[in-house]
Amino acid sequence: MDPKFRFDLNEIIARGERIVVDVGCGSRKKAGTIGIDKIDLEGVDIVSDLEEGLSFFPDGSVDEIHCRSVLEHVENMEGLLTEMLRVLKAEGRAHIFVPHFSNPHFYSDYTHRRFFGLYTFYYFVEPAKQLKRKVPNYYSSVRLRILKQRLVFRSTFKLFNPFKKACGRLINLHPRVQEWYEENLCHFLPCRGIEVVFTRDVQQRQAFCLQAVAESGQAPPQQDFCGARSAMDSPGGTPERIACDRFG
Ligand SMILES: C[S@@+](CC[C@H](N)C(=O)[O-])C[C@H]1O[C@@H](n2cnc3c(N)ncnc32)[C@H](O)[C@@H]1O
Predict the structure, then answer these.
(1) Which of 49, 109, 139, 190 allows an S-S link to 102, with CB 3.0 to 4.6 Å?
(2) What's the gap in Å between 88 CA and the centre of ligand 1?
């Protein structure tokens, strides 16, 4: 699918304006953002299939990404995460919302492809920065740094809302409480979704690429379409860059 543009993106990039993007904006685009969606709805600025990445943005060109209720729809989530990290500036932030696996409405939507839990995004994080319960990060070469993660509680029954929100405040007091809640309580008090804010973890990405080259010379288990070069800060020619380019 060739992207369709409602404005001149190159001109905005050339002017050096702040770029804030709403990935999979649907019909409720966040104000002041560039909206991307595969369906040509009102407010969508770039009509494009996210399965094909964000190739229209150069490396390190985006200040902020918002992506709400979209990753559960996308087949190649790892590819899209890699693309997000590629286009983000070094200090850029991605603000993501995904449904929690205990959200009963999750199952009604036949277009949903995957579940999310407290640990899902930690599969892309080095063990020392993970939660108390560790998960393997060797499935993927994607490396990100989680700055904040919050469980969101809300009910469609308005009277029940204050109670759920109060529980949410307690549960979000500490990551250990979140972990206890998810293990023991989430099916009694379902959670609507997870808000996560992450940024690039350049050092970890470089370490992963160098180790992969040193050990096998083979591509990492999950090769992504946009290339390991995505998370690199350094200009071309460094060993890290060469190593990462090999996995592109
Ligand atoms: C549940 S809606 C969320 C819309 C909006 N972010 C919101 O919070 O209201 C999911 C959106 O993701 C878009 N989407 C799903 N898969 C996509 C893809 N492969 N490429 C582009 N957009 C996609 C859908 O068209 C839809 O607008």
Answers:
(1) 190
(2) 20
Task: Tell which atom from ligand 1 comes closest to the C-alpha of 23.
Answer: 6
Pocket of ligand 1 contains residue 196 by CB under 6 Å:
no
Beta carbons within 8 Å of 129's beta carbon, 6+ residues apart: 145, 146
Q: Is the pLDDT of residue 194 over 60?
A: yes
Residue 69, ligand 1, Cβ within 6 A:
yes
Structurally, the chain folds into a number of domains equal to 1
Say what angle helices 175-184 and 161-171 make with each other, to 10 degrees.
Answer: 120
pLDDT (tens digit per residue) in 12-27 = 999 999 999 999 999 9
Mean pLDDT of the chain: 88
CATH number of the domain that 102 lies in? 3.40.50.150
